[in-house]
Amino acid sequence: MHRTIIEPFKIKMVEPLSFLTREQRENLLIEAGYNLFLLKSKHVTFDFLTDSGTTAMSSAQWAAMMIADETYAGSKSFEKFQNVVNEVMGFPYVIPTHQGRASERVFFGHLVKKGNKVPSNNHFDTTRANIEYLGAEAVDLVIDEGKDPKNTFPFKGNIDLKKLEDFCRTHQTQIPFGMITITNNTGGGQPVSLENIKACANIYHKYNIPFIIDACRFAENSMLIKQRETNQNHKSVADIARETFADADGCLMSAKKDAMSNIGGFIALKTNNWLQSLKNLLILTEGFPTYGGLAARDLEAMAVGLKEVLDESYLEYRIAVSRYMVEKLNALGIPTVLPAGGHAVYIDAKSFLPHIPSHQFPGQALAVELYRREGIRTCEIGSVMFDNAAMELVRLAFPRRVYTQSHFDYIIEGLGDLVPEKAQLRGFKMVYKPEALRHFTARFEPL
Ligand code: F0G
After folding, report:
1. Residue 349 CA, distance from chain mean position
2. I need a surface site. Which of 194, 286, 320, 398 has the fewest CB within 10 A?
3. Is domain 59-308 annotated with CATH 3.40.640.10?
């Protein structure tokens, strides 16, 4: 009986890690205005800023890239990519884009009008920003359990169905489409159950509202359904993924996550209702509809990645790492969102640092300290990122197939010293506050 979590792959290409001293990191923090987005990667030892576009691609993906058909129109690589999306998700109409937010901009640009409202469990920052940019409202209707970091409900990404029904009834004519994000990144990487996805589809459709899934972590969500939802364990993840999309009218995808690619995205649709208008918008800013702002080699990487990600030994390992990190952090006395999700571990900075109030950014204080001590780059998801944030979280997002189990053990050892010294941490003041998506460029001063 083996207990060690092992990577179900071997490594063919390596990149050195960089190790700096704490003093060097302190100076770099001052230069970066204490914003970890403004650090250089050569100054980061463990980069957990995001799982987006940071995947180590497989030899099969690199091999496919070499045979890509770099044609402006009608590329063979596009056909291959489109067929895979249809096979994996069941959507025959596919529009490639350069990444998730480009899918959002093109799709919303056609469908969202001023004064509209778009419900979801939780909108991710770019999704929210693209909706608000068009003068519409992005509405979060996640279940109450999803707002409580300590609650161990297995599907904390679910939408509150009663709230959704009331919302659709009241605002029907203002809702161009309804969404759900799988897994719920903003809400702690929590999965949505198949039952909830189907119930949402029914409610949206009852009010003639199209149902669009923000699908970037669909494979992790499918594995968590297999592991946690009643009567799902006998199904393959591939079957669960197809069921996930079966009642949806389409999806928006950032291929930088579960398509295992370094760049790319797409819009996939069940019917061709909006297809021509979306393609016209796409041509305006992204490119011709058979490449959508990408090289054909990126289409090849996505096509291989979308199938690779459904490998259950990979997904089991991926989710085991998050669970392991949650257990070890909790054992050290560092509270996290429970239960563990798929792509990341979210430290609950509000409970960990109760002496730092939200307006002094406890998440930022912790993120800065993790870098200062261990060279770990993380991402604040709290009052820096959002006005009226429900939680103050620090996300350690794990790039796919990049760090090994011994890296995680090394980090856990390093964090042991932080707990007894946490009362010394101080909050921050935001001294430069950009209008939109401020976490990317804001600057801070310690209090
Ligand atoms: N939707 C969700 C749920 C996301 O997590 C992201 C990106 C996007 C849409 C936008 O995709 O980056 O390809 O334009 N999330 C990254 C993250 C940036 O770090 O969580 P994109």
Report:
1. 20
2. 320
3. yes
Mutation probe of ligand 1 site: the residue of 54, 184, 217, 257 with most atoms within 8 A of C-beta: 257
Q: What is the mean pLDDT of residues 254-275?
A: 98
Report phi then psi at 262, rounded to 5: -85, -15
For the stretch 360-386, pLDDT in tens is: 999 999 999 999 999 999 999 999 998
- Of 118, 126, 256, which is best to mutate to test ligand 1, by the most ligand atoms within 8 angstroms of its C-beta? 126
Report the alpha-carbon distance of residue 205 to residue 241 in Å, rounded: 20
Cα–ligand 1 centroid distance for 101 (angstroms): 7
CA 18 to chain centre: 26
CA 35 to ligand 1 center in whole angstroms: 19
Angle, helices 237-246/76-89, rounded to nearest 10 degrees: 90
Q: Which of 386, 347, 423, 290 is nearest to 149 (CA)?
A: 347
What is the distance in A from the centroid of ligand 1 to the CA of 438?
Answer: 15
Q: How far is CA 184 from CA 123, 141, 191, 342, in A?
A: 8, 12, 6, 10
- The dihedral formed by the CA atoms of 348, 184, 107 and 170, expressed in degrees to the nearest 10: -100
* Dist CA 145 CA 78 (whole Å): 41
Q: Which fold has domain 22-51+311-446?
A: Aspartate Aminotransferase, domain 1 (3.90.1150)
Provide the whole-model pTM.
Answer: 0.96
Contact 442, 34 (CB under 8 A): no
pLDDT tens, position by position, 44-100? 999 999 999 999 999 999 999 999 999 999 999 999 999 999 999 999 999 999 999
Q: Determine whether 178 is exposed, middle or buried from the number of CB atoms within 10 Å of its CB (0-12, 13-18, 19+).
A: buried
Domain ranges for the chain: 22-51+311-446, 59-308
Taking residue 68's Cβ as centre, other Cβ atoms within 10 Å add up to 20
Residue nearest to atom 1 of ligand 1 (CA): 124
